[in-house]
Amino acid sequence: MIDNNSSGVNSNNNNNNGTNATITIAGGSSEETSDVWRIFEFVSHILNCVYVPIIVCMGSLGNILSVFVFSKTKLCKLSSSYYLAALAISDTCFLFGLFIQWLNFFDINIYNRDYFCQFFTFFSYLASFCSSWFVVAFTVERFIAVMYPLKRQTMCTVRRAKIVLSGISVLGVLHCIPFWISSQPVFLDERHTTICDIKNEYKGYILLLNYWDTIVVYAVPFVVIAILNVFTGWTVCKFAHVRRTLTMSRKKSQQLTTATKTTEATTTTTTTTALSEVNLTNPSCILNASQTIATYRIPASLKRQKSLCLHFNTHNRVTKLNHDENQRYQQRKQQQHRLHDEPEQQRVTKNLIIESREGSSSSNFSKRQGR
C-alpha cells in the first residue's frame, strides 16, 4: 500500500512538471511574438513618418507642374491633355487627404474632428474613384487613336473629353456619398482618444459597400486597362513591322537604281573610249560602232524595261534603229556625190551652150556670104 501510494504521488509530480514546462514554453513563444510585433510597429512608424511626406511633397509638385504644362501651353488643344490634367488634379487631392491623415502621428487631430472626418473620407474615396476611371478614359482614347485613326478627329475631341470628365466626376460623387453619411468621430474608451470611424448602425452596410468599391474602383478598371493596352501594343507592333518592311524594300529599290546607274555610266565610258579609237571616216567602222553601242546598251535598257514593264520587243527596236541609221548614211553619201558631181555637170552644160552658139553664128555667116 505504501509503495502504491508513493508511486501515485510520483506520477502526479511528473504530470505537474510537464504542465509547468508547457506553460513556460507557451509564455516564451508569446514573448517572442510580442517582440516581433513591437519591431514591426517601430519600423512601420518610422516609414510612415518619413515615407509619406516625401511622396506627398514630390507627387504634389510633379502634379502641379503637369497641370500647368497641360493647360498653359499648346498641349491644351489636345483632348488627351485634359485627361492627364484631370488625373494630376485627382492624384493631388488624394495626396492631400493622405497628408491630413498623416498629421495624426504628431497629435494634430484635424482628421478626427467632426465634419472634417466626413469630408476627408469622402474626398479620399472620390479622388481614388476619379483617378482610376480617368486612366480608363485616357486608355480608351489612345485605343481609338491607334485602332481607328480615321475616326480620331471626330471622336477624340476636346468637347467630348470635357463631357467624359464631368460624367466621371458626377458618378464618383454619387458613388462616395454613402461614405460621407456613414462616417463620424468615435471616442474609444480603451485608448482614451477620438478617431474617425464608421457609425455602428452602418457597419454591416459599409462592409458590402467596401466590396462594391473594390470591384468598381480597382478590379474593373484594371481589367479594362489591361485588355485595351494589349490590343494597342499588338497593333503598334504590327504597324512597326509593316513600316520596317516598307523601309527595307525602299532601300533595296534605291540600291538597285544606283547599281543600274553605275552600270550605265560604265557602259557609256567604254563606248566612248571604243568610239575614240574608231576611224569615223570609214562607213563600215561607223556601222560596227553603232552595233557595239547597241550591244552595250541592251542589258541596261532591258533592266530598265523590266522594272518599268514597257517595250518588250527590244531586239526588234534595236534592229530598226540600225536600219534607220544605215539609210541615213546612204542618204548622206548620195548628197556628197551630188555635191561632188555638180561642177562637172555645170561645165558640160556650159560647153554645150557655147558650141550651140558658135554653130548658130557660123551658119548665119555662111548664109550671108551666099547672098
TrEMBL record:
<dbReference type="InterPro" id="IPR052954">
    <property type="entry name" value="GPCR-Ligand_Int"/>
</dbReference>
<dbReference type="InterPro" id="IPR017452">
    <property type="entry name" value="GPCR_Rhodpsn_7TM"/>
</dbReference>
<feature type="transmembrane region" description="Helical">
    <location>
        <begin position="161"/>
        <end position="181"/>
    </location>
</feature>
<keyword id="KW-0675">Receptor</keyword>
<feature type="domain" description="G-protein coupled receptors family 1 profile">
    <location>
        <begin position="62"/>
        <end position="228"/>
    </location>
</feature>
<feature type="transmembrane region" description="Helical">
    <location>
        <begin position="122"/>
        <end position="140"/>
    </location>
</feature>
<comment type="similarity">
    <text>Belongs to the G-protein coupled receptor 1 family.</text>
</comment>
<keyword id="KW-0807">Transducer</keyword>
<dbReference type="GO" id="GO:0016020">
    <property type="term" value="C:membrane"/>
</dbReference>
<feature type="transmembrane region" description="Helical">
    <location>
        <begin position="82"/>
        <end position="102"/>
    </location>
</feature>
<dbReference type="Pfam" id="PF00001">
    <property type="entry name" value="7tm_1"/>
</dbReference>
<protein>
    <recommendedName>
        <fullName>G-protein coupled receptors family 1 profile domain-containing protein</fullName>
    </recommendedName>
</protein>
<keyword id="KW-0297">G-protein coupled receptor</keyword>
<keyword id="KW-0472">Membrane</keyword>
<feature type="transmembrane region" description="Helical">
    <location>
        <begin position="215"/>
        <end position="240"/>
    </location>
</feature>
<dbReference type="GO" id="GO:0004930">
    <property type="term" value="F:G protein-coupled receptor activity"/>
</dbReference>
<dbReference type="InterPro" id="IPR000276">
    <property type="entry name" value="GPCR_Rhodpsn"/>
</dbReference>
<keyword id="KW-0812">Transmembrane</keyword>
<feature type="transmembrane region" description="Helical">
    <location>
        <begin position="50"/>
        <end position="70"/>
    </location>
</feature>
<keyword id="KW-1133">Transmembrane helix</keyword>
